[in-house]
Amino acid sequence: MAKKIMSVLVVVLSIFMLYYFVGCQSTAKTSAKVYLQQDNIEKAIEQLEIDVQQNPQDAESHYLLGYCYGQKGRFKEMIRELDASLAISDKYKTDIEKIKRKYWIDNFNTGIRKVQSEQFAEAIPYFKMAIAILPSDPKAYRSLAFAYAKLDSLKKAETFYKKALEIQPEDVHTLISLGTLYYKAKKYDDAIATFEKVLKIDASNKDAIYYIAVCYDLKGEPDKALEMYNEALKANPDEKDLYFNRGRLFYLREDYDNAIKDFEKVLAIDSTDFDAFCNLGKSYLFLGDRLFKQGNELEQKAGSANKAKIKELKEKEIQFYRKSLEYLLKAAKIKPEDPNLWYDIGVAYVRMGEPEKGKEAFEKSDELKSKK
Length: 372
Known about the structure:
- By secondary structure, the protein is an all-alpha fold.
- Helices cover 83% and strands 0% of the residues.
């Protein structure tokens, strides 16, 4: 009799336990889990959508539904459900973070591949989705900004670079990108301010020093520009553009001796630089003209001592014109169709006392101008 009663109790207890484990979750959730085991995601979604309507405070159902949406690439719904689960409980937090990271990586990497293929417009939706999935990761903001910059949507690019900096305010890579964006947009004050932030973090940053120098130059502040070019060249001793730009500043100040030194350094780095040849030729031309004027002034004054000085000036003057012609003719080999260049060549020939060659050069200059 006792054994019979015990058997009945076991059966009753088993029924109770089955009721407890199955009955405490809805039929919809139970069905969804079965469908998940069968890898039938669509059917699982149908049941879980029913369950979250019936049991909106069930963290597990929201989590499972978010997981299923992710499997189907329905990322907006995935984010909504995963966030809903976290709002109720942090029980599934670790799993949710893994899911979000996985789909962030998928979207981010797809965007990067689009950028590498120069499909910038097509990359944008993937970076935006990555941001929606993990708004705390700055890399997608930077990449989205880069894509917009490539599409000349500079205002949007600026917005997303700034958002990246809200997350990582001292990220040098992002600051350089934003500063370069301002530079391209001709917002030189903003560019300088941004690059100065870089120098507070990395005092020897070559890019920041370079762009500050160029920005001051383009702003029409030659003294500050010259100071920064000097600093930039300490950090970038092989950067020909820095030598060229500093040489141009010297040239505009009529400091032709220093201009010549910098233009010669440009040619030492790049022996085919047309503009360096031209500016060297013009610098020597102006140095010759300067001596020509000095000689004329001395001729107006009497005295045997002046004759010796005039002769010395004349010899040096011819040397300058000869150097000028040497560089201008080298430039003409690179761009023989430049009319202004042939005009300068004509001037150099005339100054050297070769008027016929000068005339030929002037005629060539006029001919080239008439073709334009």
